[in-house]
């Protein structure tokens, strides 16, 4: 009885971890609305990223001061690891993704960036034999990726190639794959809160060269248009602090590859929010693609 109870308990915990991963992706899928409003309000993508990370870092800083959480890693090599996380999951990722949309279509950007689970699986498999996918998981990943293509293309199977924009989107895709890879040794040695605070710190630190050439954060606009402040607080408090903490935590619980596969749901949740908030239609392609993603995610979680 105890053994069976333990199995059920473990199964329930795993369901919880998957639910948390989906919740994070759903929140990230909603951020396009708040980011769009800030862009229309006169903020640049770099300013939005920097301000939301400042808010997130300040929140974690206060918490860490209160709890007396350590400041430095055990070695300078680990500090470099945290720097890599801050760049790959922070500054470079956001700059590449947002700048890509200035040079190519949203469809191209979404399609390329959200294919990062494929590259993450390959990259992690090169460094960690224990994390390599079995045949069922490979089939599941391919099915999920196919579903992503169907959802994003939405029946319009024509890509408008833009070398610069598509290259930037691919850089963002690789950045998130590298972030997933580097999170494995970071999570193995350090607490989730500590790692996440380091990600925000080095993400902000690595933005300094950018603001040397493009100075200014336009903070005054938040006082001129108070509604923009609430949008920014959502991005900083919820989409950054809460989501990065829970994403890094659930990655420790389920593994980097399985959690990264949830990125396939990003355009799904974006379209759902567009339907709810902007009355955009739901098509048969969206439903079919979503079903493929669900089937692929189910298979990719099979370990045997």
Describe what this molecule looks like in 3D.
The protein is an all-alpha fold. The protein is 80% helix and 0% strand. The chain is globular, with a radius of gyration of 19 Å.
Main traits of this protein?
disordered N terminus, globular, mainly alpha, 304 residues, 14 helices
Secondary-structure blueprint of this entry?
Elements: H1 2-40, H2 45-67, H3 76-100, H4 106-113, H5 116-127, H6 135-153, H7 163-189, H8 192-205, H9 208-213, H10 220-224, H11 226-254, H12 256-260, H13 266-278, H14 284-300
Distance between the termini: 25 Å
Order of helices and strands, N to C?
Answer: HHHHHHHHHHHHHH
Find the count of extended strands (DSSP E, 2+ residues).
0
Q: Please outline the major beta sheet.
A: none
Content-based structural category: mainly alpha
Helix content: over 70%
Could you tell me the strand content as a percent range?
under 5%
Rg over C-alpha atoms, rounded to the nearest angstrom: 19 Å
Instruction: State the shape.
Output: globular
**Unreliable residue stretches:** 1-8
What's the pLDDT, averaged over the residues? 85
- Per DSSP, the total helix count is 14
């Amino acid at each position: 009885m105890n053994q069976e109870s333990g199995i059920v308990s473990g199964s329930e915990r795993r369901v919880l971890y998957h639910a948390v991963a989906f919740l994070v992706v759903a929140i990230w899928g909603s951020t396009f609305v708040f980011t769009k409003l800030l862009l229309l309000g006169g903020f640049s993508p770099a300013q939005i990223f920097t301000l939301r990370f400042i808010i997130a870092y300040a929140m974690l800083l206060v918490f860490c001061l209160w709890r007396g959480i350590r400041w430095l890693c055990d070695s300078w090599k680990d500090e470099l690891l945290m720097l890599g996380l801050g760049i790959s999951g922070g500054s470079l990722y956001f700059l590449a993704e947002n700048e890509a949309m200035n040079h190519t279509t949203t469809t191209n950007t979404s399609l390329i960036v959200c294919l990062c689970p494929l590259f993450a699986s390959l990259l992690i498999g090169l460094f960690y034999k224990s994390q390599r996918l079995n045949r069922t998981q490979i089939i599941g990943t391919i099915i999920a990726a196919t579903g992503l293509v169907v959802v994003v293309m939405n029946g319009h199977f024509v890509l408008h190639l833009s070398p610069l924009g598509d290259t930037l989107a691919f850089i963002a895709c690789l950045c998130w794959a590298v972030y997933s890879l580097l999170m494995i040794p970071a999570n193995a040695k350090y607490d989730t809160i500590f790692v996440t605070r380091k990600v925000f710190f080095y993400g902000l630190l690595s933005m300094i060269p950018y603001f040397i050439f493009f100075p200014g954060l336009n903070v005054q606009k938040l006082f001129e248009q108070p509604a923009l402040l609430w949008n920014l607080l959502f991005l900083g408090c919820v989409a950054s602090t809460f989501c990065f903490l829970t994403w890094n935590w659930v990655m420790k619980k389920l593994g980097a590859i399985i959690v990264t596969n949830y990125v396939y749901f990003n355009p799904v949740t974006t379209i759902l929010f567009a339907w709810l908030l902007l009355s955009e239609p739901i098509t048969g392609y969206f439903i079919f693609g979503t079903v493929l993603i669900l089937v692929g995610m189910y298979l990719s979680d099979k370990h045997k």
